[in-house]
Amino acid sequence: MHLKRIAVLGSTGSIGINTLRVVERFPKEFQVVALSAYTNTRLLEQQIKKFSPLYAGASRQGIEYLHKCRGLGKSKLFCVEEGMAPIVNSPQVDTVVLGIRGAAALKPLLGAVRSGKTVALANKEALVMAGHIIIKEAKRHNATIVPVDSEQSAIFQCLDGKNKSELNKVYLTASGGSLCDVPKSEFGKLSVSRILKHPRWKMGKKITVDSATLMNKGLEIIEAMWLFNLDADAIEVLIHPQAVIHSMVEFRDGSILAQLGITDMRLPIQYALTYPRRFKTNLKDMDFLKLRQLTFKKPDLNKFPALQLCMDVARDKGTTPCVLNAANEEAVEAFLNNKVNFLGIYKIVEKVVSKHRSIQSPTLEDVWAADGWAREQAKGLILN
């Protein structure tokens, strides 16, 4: 059995770093053949020296830096700004770990599924934008998408080998984010640094902000619709502060299967890489005797209106989810740069979505047009 050849796109982010930690534990199972990053070129340099990939991608500025470095071996450099085609189309790649954030992941994801790859998917925005196209292409080219996000991984594991026609409902759990116990009256005063303090996960800035607004959970609703061929109304969000149950599925006979585990991203990453096999981890075991309680409550949609907006958008489908995602990306970036306050994120997204006239069954060109339109609308609101 040959080594599973891995490409890690977004290797310097939290998903990429944890992926390489997992791969490093199993040198007889995996070979890193490609790495890519955008801004953190110094860390990418260290990764290239450690894993000796055949390909390494960086920004134009990053490539200039890497050309001056010694000890990079024979890694072939490519510019990520010109696309990921050299990697996702390469016959030397078996599995693509997609840790690129935001809409930038759509093109490499489509390229990977059209090349029949296994994709360990840690990006939800691409499916939100064009889930109907991605899933159709994956089926056409016999590609496999294994989700990496803990909630989608939990659903994937609970449904593996089951008759999906017998599924009744999916429960997406959420820790509640950094503002679970903060009154809404204080939201307008919250600083960027306060929002970025997540109680459970150490993540990138954008996803941490999305977790605070619960936009992240709303995007996961849309993502789950496409991944598991569900109606929006078959997905229910539950706030579960302990973050022990990562999600649950209910079948029509009333039976419920849940996936539990410690809060460590290496667990779903390893499962995605080894699927359908399971390898032993070096993570601590869960101690059930220390679990005092597992609690659940409904999300407060008045306090977190972004979640309700996502539910409505999920039902609408068409190009509206793409518009929602693009407007949110722009609004979150503006918040991180102190151009709008925390409450301004939702206001901008809601206004852009309300202006949009959805195109049902859109082409890829329609998706990109909607994405561009939404960004221009959001930027206009930010400037005002």
Description:
With 384 residues, the chain is of the alpha/beta class. The protein has three domains: 4-147, Rossmann fold; 149-263 and 284-316, no CATH class; 318-384, Rna Polymerase Sigma Factor, Chain: A (Orthogonal Bundle), CATH 1.10.1740.10. It is 44% helix and 15% strand. The strands form two sheets. The chain has a seven-stranded parallel sheet, sandwiched between helices. Strands 9-8-10-11 form a four-stranded mixed sheet, covered by helices on one side. Strand 5 (95-98), helix 5 and strand 6 (118-121) form a beta-alpha-beta unit.
Overview features:
3 domains; Rna Polymerase Sigma Factor, Chain: A; 384 residues; 4-stranded mixed beta sheet; Rossmann fold; alpha/beta; globular; 7-stranded parallel beta sheet; 15 helices
List the helices and strands and how they pair.
Layout: E1 4-9, H1 14-25, E2 30-36, H2 41-51, E3 55-58, H3 60-67, E4 76-79, H4 85-88, E5 95-98, H5 106-114, E6 118-121, H6 125-140, E7 144-147, H7 150-159, E8 167-174, H8 192-195, H9 205-213, H10 215-228, E9 235-239, E10 245-251, E11 256-260, H11 266-274, H12 305-316, H13 320-336, H14 342-355, H15 364-383
Parallel strand pairs: 1-2, 1-5, 2-3, 3-4, 5-6, 6-7, 8-9
Antiparallel strand pairs: 8-10, 10-11
What would you say about this model in short?
The protein has helices spanning 14-25, 41-51, 60-67, 85-88, 106-114, 125-140, 150-159, 192-195, 205-213, 215-228, 266-274, 305-316, 320-336, 342-355, 364-383, and strands at residues 4-9, 30-36, 55-58, 76-79, 95-98, 118-121, 144-147, 167-174, 235-239, 245-251, 256-260. With 384 residues, the chain is an alpha/beta fold. It folds into 3 domains: 4-147, 3-Layer(aba) Sandwich (Rossmann fold); 149-263 and 284-316, no CATH class; 318-384, Rna Polymerase Sigma Factor, Chain: A (Orthogonal Bundle), CATH 1.10.1740.10.
